[in-house]
């Protein structure tokens, strides 16, 4: 009977340790994900959408990389002649339309 009680206590202890490790890893994963999202979504870009006549259609200031991706996806659906300017502190990228490229 003593061996059976020891085995039960050992099993219970292993269960508690396993549960504690699982909860610790889950918490660490959530914290790492939040830190990663905070770094990736740091507002740092200015976007200007310009039509074929040079008229500014829309300006976005201090937007995240996610918003840059959304604007670029939307630009794919616009007609030729539109241009997007994306600016960072020291870098400027101009995305010409297909009409201007060829």
Polypeptide structure, described:
Helices cover 54% and strands 23% of the residues. The protein has two domains: 40 residues; 52 residues, no CATH class. A hairpin with a 4-residue loop joins strand 3 and strand 4. It is an alpha+beta fold. A four-stranded antiparallel sheet has the order 2-1-3-4, with helices on one face.
Q: How would you concisely characterize the structure shown here?
A:
The chain has three helices and four strands. It is of the alpha+beta class.
Topology:
Blueprint: H1 2-40, E1 45-50, E2 56-63, H2 65-76, E3 83-87, E4 92-95, H3 98-101
Antiparallel strand pairs: 1-2, 1-3, 3-4
Radius of gyration: 27 Å
What helical percentage do the residues reach?
40-55%
Average pLDDT metric: 81
Q: Total helix count?
A: 3
Rounded to the nearest angstrom, the distance between the terminal CA atoms is: 87 Å
Count of DSSP strands: 4
| Lateral strand order in the biggest sheet | 2-1-3-4
Beta-strand residue fraction: 15-25%
Uncertain runs are none
Pick out its properties.
102 residues; alpha+beta; 4-stranded antiparallel β-sheet; 4 strands; 54% helix; rod-shaped
């Amino acid at each position: 009977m003593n061996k059976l009680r020891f085995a039960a206590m050992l099993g219970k202890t292993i269960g508690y340790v396993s549960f504690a490790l699982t909860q610790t890893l889950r918490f660490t994963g959530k914290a790492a994900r939040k830190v990663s999202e905070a770094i990736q979504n740091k507002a740092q870009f200015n976007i200007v959408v310009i039509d074929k006549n040079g008229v500014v259609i829309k300006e976005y200031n201090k937007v995240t990389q996610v918003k840059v991706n959304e604007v670029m996806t939307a630009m794919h659906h616009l007609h030729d002649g539109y241009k997007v300017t994306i600016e960072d502190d020291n870098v400027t990228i101009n995305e010409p339309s297909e009409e201007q490229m060829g």
